[in-house]
Amino acid sequence: MAATGKTLAPASSARPAAAPAKMATSRPEKPRAWLRPGTLATYAALIVLAVAFCLPFVWLVLSSLKPADEIYAGTWLPSRWMWSNYADVFHAAPVLDWFLNTLLVTTLAVVAVVMSSSLVAYGFARIRFPGKRPLFALVMGTYLLPGAVTLIPTFLIWNKLGAVNTFWPLWAGNLFGSAFYIFMLRQFMLTVPQDLIDAARVDGAGFFRIYWNLMLPLVRPALVAVAIFEANAKWDDFMTPLIYLNNPNNYTFALGLASMKDSFKELGTQWSLLMAASVVFTVPMMVLFFLFQRYFMEGVTHSGIKG
Amino acid sequence: MANIAVEERIHAARSGRRTRFGLSDETRAGWLAIAPWLVGFAIFTAFPFLASLYFSFTKYDVINPPQWIGLDNYQRLFTHDRLFPLAIRNTFIYALMYVPLHLVASLSVALLLNEARHARGVFRTAFYLPSMTPAVATAYLWVWMLNPNDGLINRTLRWLHLPAPAWTVDPFWTKPTIVISQVWMMGSAMILFLAALQGVPKDLYEAATLDGAGRWERFRSVTLPMISGVTFFLATVSIIASLNVFTQGYVMFDKDGGPQNSALFIVMYLFKRAFGSGYFQMGYASAIAWILFLMILVITVIQFRLSKRWVYYEHEGG
Amino acid sequence: MDHPLIRFAPAHARLTRRGLIARSAAAASTAFVAPAVIRSAGAQDATPAASGTLVEWGFGTAETNPMARSRVEAFQKAFPDVQLQVVESFDEQKLLTAAASSTVPDAIWLSRFETATWAARGVLQPLTEFVQRDSFDTSIFYDAAIQESTWNGELYGIPGGMDVRALFFNLDALKEAGIDGSSLDTSDWDALSDMGSKLVQKDGDVLKRWGFDHKVQAKNFWLWGNGNGGHFMNDDATEATFNDGKNVEALEWAVKAYDAQGGYQAYQGLATTWQGDEQFARGQVAITLYEQWMMSGPIATVAPDMNFVVLPVREKGSGKDGRMVSFTGGNSWYIPKGAKNPDAAWEFIKFMHSDATWKLGAEATKAYRKQQGRPYIPSLTGSKTADQLQIDELYEPIAGPFDDAVKLFPQILEQSQNREIGKSPVAGQLEDIMADTGVSPALSGESAPQDALDQANSDAQDAIDSF
């Protein structure tokens, strides 16, 4: 199993030496054992930037804990720590419903896209059939298609199917695979050594058996990465729910949060509650990140490097 | 001898048997495997794609059947419509602001991070975390941070006795407002650049140094070309994403388009024409969608053509 | 006007979940029988028994809306055979998708401003037959409300609420600035903007209080244009007259009023810090045009002891007793075409509009407010009799400003008009055009008012013509 060791890096990472001939091909790295002033400046810059990047989060959380009239006071710390804001948010709007709805849609979407994209990717990666190349080019082409072009007819299709105001339009599209993930998984599948597959075929395994029993386990890290990316994307998704969902109790969180400003006039535009709701909305993504950090990094890396 | 037998078996396994209909097992399996995508493509991509082209030549309010009006919609878009050219302008200006800034910022941070040996994971997390924030939450957060009177940014600027622009109410500053909120989320681009930087063979740098190249020279002739693949990918993706900007404009400026419609973007305008009260002009909106598509197509083709000149591919391509 | 069925309403059962399920089980079993009975009885029987499922959009049953909740509960009690499904809030997009997918509700609570928009596209059904069949008295409603619910000569909606706009003056602020608050003449618009300039407050460079807010940018320009004698549209909604000379004058005045106080952008910057319509109550603006519910809402909650006065805008130059100028809006009940249970919907609508039901709602509201420690202020119902009923029987004097205002609002309603563009099926577009092309550029100094309105007019005409 040389292909998948500890890293997710495909073994066939080709970096030909295109540099001028007088360059030696392999020389040991010079270790940088000593601190240079340049390095100090680097760290200083990094610290400043990192703080700047994280500051908005801090501000977000602090704002969510302020009483309504202090939000404009310009102080950092709340005078009273309104933990009750978080409870209020759940009363003021069907926030729990939104949370659960989004969880449901996201889960369905993720499972669907992982299964379908991996199958399609397998077809493109390891099965030979006529028309494969142009079809794959077509798959890539659809990635560039702006959603706006298919928006209205897609809406009409779902309309005809009676699926407006249900969750189907939000996730069922994933049953058919998604260009980006197909591409990414195909890259991974291409790195699985042919010998393994040949061995399986010699043993009499059919193409789908190979997919299920051999391929999937081998590219599991990539599947996890796909799952996480899609989870993040669906959690965020705003436009699709905006078009299809009518009833505020059915909203996903993104849509509900956006509607809080207008619909729930009893609260008015209470920024502290909006911030609290935003925090509740963001926390699951943070948790997801911390749990699967490695997969995120590797997944992002490999989506682009081979691109 | 035994090897040949194995070879033959492998060969036999690879080519597969042929069925009665002349289709090999493999071909059938192949088509089956990609069937999900094909079906989805037919129903949710190809058909809507063509249907929206048809609609763009009609007057259609969804409730009543479409009426054919030929090129009327397109004509109106380019002659009568006051907001459409504005939307195009806004979208392009936004893209021009966002894409270079995004690339430069993410590359700069990646370069810095590349130099750092310690606490890399911590820094990486700090820069990546914002990109996990959901779009709507980001919109609210930054609308609030950039509030002209009381937002954190302006309070700080005033404290430093610097000019404090009226971010969300000045038509000049509304697009920068969105750009800032988006550049804050550059985490994944940064990671990509970082990985690319780490993949640049050290020997190249050493060779360049031997040749007498200074830091800037090294950057320009080694680093940039070696990461050009990633740069191209990111540039393409972010240009397309910025031409499709919707959520930020919609949420940050109350669906309205912002002060003097300075934050009215193409997709937002499309949405308004399709679903806005008193509008319901699906045909018109479809025409807008097609124009957007053609623009993106042209831009992408140009990019791909240009890429041959400046992008250095180390392999023969996937 | 007592609804006949209320007398026979069973005096039991609160609106419990179990109760609903039990009732719907009963209803389900009778549902197959009942419709047949209704249809045959319909023509002769003036009040057929409503049954089946009634899907209603837009009316809240939230605890925070006792006016709606109590009336909906009363309906449920009076019509136990009707299984009511409530969808509390929606927007026009949802109605569009529902109309397109034929999943329309039976009764819908919609802004009257959109009557033409939906009726002209065949989404609503006229109520004339129902009205005639039951001899429903529509004269109890304010003219403006009934007219706005009418399109092409047919009545589509029954008004269920009304809003009206007037000027709110913060008398303490006026006193501080040396302005006499006892003899305000709201027909002297120049005086109003002068006052505004005097009332602006700043903290260094940052605006803290705006002086006079005419809210032209918040889709209120119609009021000021009409107040100057201008018109925005002709009677049959075929011609836009946005650039009527009187309108241009009004816009010029509005622009000057803002400029004198610091300019539109400064105003906008300050406005972004206003939370939940509380700006007047919190002293962030001294004089403002606003809808009447700002009084029962923010002021009553945040600053019930405030020294303020509400006065109607009067026609420019018409003196202290001149013609009151306001435009009203509000919601009405409609029945979409293709509704599955229009009969039940009609019963629902009639029930909602009886004085007895309104009284129930008002009493519930009063109790709720008392519970919250807030004063009770009558709602504007759209029905003259119901409004008067609340003032006569339920309203308890609070303080001078509130008492005067409460009596004033119905008076303004009598004289108020509708937004003329509401007559057009592209009303939404016209509103946007006025805001984007007419008012906004003028306020921000991008175009002169005349040019802005000229352009707005040609765009508006274009929109009307291409419907």
Q: Can you offer a commentary on this structure?
A:
The complex is a heterotrimer of chains A (307), B (318) and C (467). Chain A has 14 helices and no strands. Chain A has 307 residues and is mainly α. In chain A, helix 3 (95-126) crosses helix 7. The radius of gyration of chain A is 25 Å and the shape is globular. The two termini of chain A are 25 Å apart. Chain B is built from 15 helices and two strands. Chain B has 318 residues and is an all-alpha fold. Chain B has helices spanning 2-15, 25-55, 72-79, 83-115, 120-128, 135-145, 152-159, 174-183, 187-198, 202-210, 215-226, 228-243, 247-252, 266-275, 282-310, and strands at 58-59, 67-68. Chain B starts with a helix and ends in an 8-residue tail after the last helix. In chain B, helix 4 (83-115) crosses helix 9 (187-198). Chain B has two domains: 2-55, no CATH class; 76-316, MetI-like (MetI-like fold, Orthogonal Bundle). The radius of gyration of chain B is 26 Å and the shape is flat. In chain B, strand 1 (58-59) and strand 2 form a beta hairpin. Chain C has two domains: 6-162 and 329-394, Periplasmic binding protein-like II (D-Maltodextrin-Binding Protein, domain 2, 3-Layer(aba) Sandwich); 165-325 and 422-466, Periplasmic binding protein-like II (D-Maltodextrin-Binding Protein, domain 2, 3-Layer(aba) Sandwich), CATH 3.40.190.10. In chain C, strand 8 and strand 9 form a beta hairpin. Chains A and B meet through helix 1, helix 3, helix 4, helix 5 and helix 7 of A and helix 1, helix 2, helix 4, helix 5 and helix 6 of B.
